[in-house]
Amino acid sequence: MANRSLTLPLIAALALGVSACATKKKDLPPPPPSATTPVQPGIDPNAGNNNVPPPSNVGNANVPGSAADFAAQSGSDHVLFQYDSYEFDEEARTILGKQAEWLARYPQIRITVEGHADERGTREYNLALGDRRATAAKNFLAAQGVDTNRMTTISYGKERPSVEGSDESSWAQNRRAVSVVASAG
Amino acid sequence: MRILFLAALALAAPAFAAPIRVDINSGIAQPLPIAVPAFATPAAANTEAGSTAALGAQVAQVISNDLKSSGLFRPVDPAAFTTSVTPADVLRPQFASWRTVAAQALVTGTVTANPDGGITVGCYAYDVFSAEELARNGFVTTAAGWRRAAHKCADLVYSRLTGETGYFDSRIVYVSETGRKTKRIKRLAVMDQDGAGHRFLTSGQNLVLTPRFAPNQQTITYMSFEGNRPRVWLYTLGSGRQQAIGDFPNMSFAPRFSPDGSNLIFSMSTGGNTDIFRLDIGSRRLTRLTSQAGIDTAPSYSPDGSRIVFESDRGGSQQLYVMNADGSGQQRISFGDGRAATPVWSPRGDLIAFTRMGGGRFSVGVMKPDGSGERLLTNAYQDEGPTWSPNGRVILFFRSARGGPVDLWSVDLSGQNERKVPTPLDGSDPAWSPLLP
Fold first, then answer.
1. Which pLDDT value is given to residue B126?
2. Which residues in chain A touch residue B297, judged by CB atoms under 8 angstroms apart?
3. Which residue of B has its CA nearest to A15?
4. In this model, does residue B30 exceed pLDDT 80?
5. What domains can you pick out in chain B, each with its CATH number?
């Protein structure tokens, strides 16, 4: 039980200390091994060439480098979670892997990762749970090579559901981490 | 608003034991029939809040509503009254006529205009059947402060007949909600305990959550998403000033004041881990109180400031824990089925109110600080976020209907008298103020 007294300038150091010693079971899982090589040369002719946008898919009218393009190329701009969980299933890993690939093509672009919870929990806990989810997604993307300086996180708890229903399928859609394309540098 | 107690009236109060008494602990007691006729006006006059005669009727109405809302009193319908009250009747009531309407107690009084533009409200309570005086007091206030004088009178009657402190002269801060769930607009709002004097404090531009009163009732701490930086803020009621408490790098939330008002306790999230911190408001000195892995949040001080109750999922699911105010001696107190969350220490110190989740239902319950004696007071689709009346007898919370509105509700400690608290829009995250001075 730490009971340290700190003055304000030390808060940042404290924050670093907490994330650095996160090893217990309730902490975030370690970033998964890099199952997906971020960008495969030969598959993407523009890999590594940050000045040339990737070719658009047939029938995809999204502006390359746009938020819509990000979601289309990644399969989704968000991943879903089980109840009270911040672990990723196979589908979520695939989406985050593709998000990382896209971000590798646009290294000037920053994202905000939003963490959200469904309505079936108390307000304060859901704020913390949303933070867990956003941080887990950020850590995953970082493990895929996305610079952490390009990513910020924010939790909305249960305050911003994506759908309005009060049923299992609505709750499942609201338990999510959304990667929001924030700006191009 | 300054309310002056008139000592001269109080001096004359008799000292004998009350022949009637309201048993506050019994959930099944019949509410006490009580008559609250319009207060008399010794000399009709106009004030900035209307004539003294009109105020006399309004004061009686506020008192009647207060007493009725407690569930412990049943005001007799004024249409049944067989007499109106003259100034002389206030000191020597016509008990026979009050017996005919089966009132067991009588609250009567006077409204007098003062030379300075203010008013004096005289408040008298009688036992109708024994024809004995129970209590009296006088309240001097501005004319606009007539409602508070009425609440003080209701508190006097409640206190005399139950043996408990009153709670009617108090306020509620809460989050007013409107709009679609996906784009909910939330604003801080305050109102008197009975819903009067409702006022919005913030514009709705920023998402705001969990407002809590300082002990002096002049400052409110809350969480705001202003600038997409969710953190703890302070709102000063007199000036309307809003101020972030610190430039923290991470989300800070779930704030509450210490009982002496000098410290804030709240949660801060770092890298997916959430711990509880204390901030000395004067020196800005920050102290970390928990460091376990997991979500530690919703801290609330004991009224003597020596301990803090909070929730943590360190053991696998949300449960209640108590620790000393310096963070030492952390100990789990909630067990049993389901999760326990949002604990709030009673102002009397004897109980902790909390949210119990289990079986797809959310309840508001109470337990002793050692975790024993758990009782659930409500059960619904989603009841959440309890707050105590200043006397620790009534609990306010918010209830979300499935796919429907979110409203403030209250229930008394016996689990009886569950009632909806009217608000202009939807309401959540209520916090009850201490009794006003």
1. 98
2. 124-125, 127-128
3. B270
4. yes
5. 4-162 (3.40.50.10070), 171-432 (2.120.10.30)
Can you tell me the distance from the alpha carbon of B163 to that of A76, in angstroms, rounded to the nearest whole number? 63
Mutant choice from A120, A124, A162 vs B, greatest count of B C-beta within 10 A: A124
Between the CA atoms of B62, B407, B228 and A18, what dihedral angle is there, to the nearest 10 degrees?
Answer: 100
Q: In b/e form, how buried is each residue of B382-409, taking b as 16+ CB within 10 angstroms? A: bbbbbbbbbbbbbbbbbbbeeeeebbbb
B293/A22 touch (CB, cutoff 8 Å), yes or no:
yes
Sorting pLDDT into bands at 50, 70 and 90, what band is B279?
very high
The identity of residue B67, as a single letter, is: L
Least confident of B255-259, B271-275, B278-282, B380-384: B271-275
Q: Do A8 and B182 touch (CB under 8 A)?
A: no
Is residue B313 over pLDDT 60? yes
Express each pLDDT in A59-85 by its tens digit. 557 899 999 999 999 999 999 999 999
So what's the ipTM on this one?
A: 0.93
Confidence class for position B14, pLDDT limits 50, 70, 90:
very low
- The reply to whether residue A154 touches residue B251, judged by beta carbons under 8 angstroms, is yes
| Cβ contact A3–B328 (<8 Å) | yes
Q: CA-CA distance, B168 to B153, in Å (whole number)?
A: 9
How many beta-carbon pairs below 8 A join chains A and B? 161
**Binary contact (A129, B295; C-beta < 8 A):** yes
Measured between CA atoms, the residue of chain A closest to residue B316 is: A26
Give the span between the Cα atoms of B326 and B311, in whole angstroms: 16
Between chains, do A124 and B184 touch, taking CB under 8 Å as contact? no
Give the pLDDT score at B404: 87
pLDDT at residue B18 is higher than 70: no
The confidence score (pLDDT) of residue A183 equals 65
Mean of the pLDDT values across residues B7-29? Answer: 54
Put simply, the answer to whether A159 touches B209 (Cβ < 8 Å) is: yes
**Which CATH architecture group holds A63-185?**
2-Layer Sandwich (3.30)
Give A155's contacts in chain B (Cβ within 8 Å).
230, 251, 269
Alpha-carbon span A171 to B220, nearest angstrom: 32
Cα–Cα distance, B237 to B215 (Å, whole number): 13
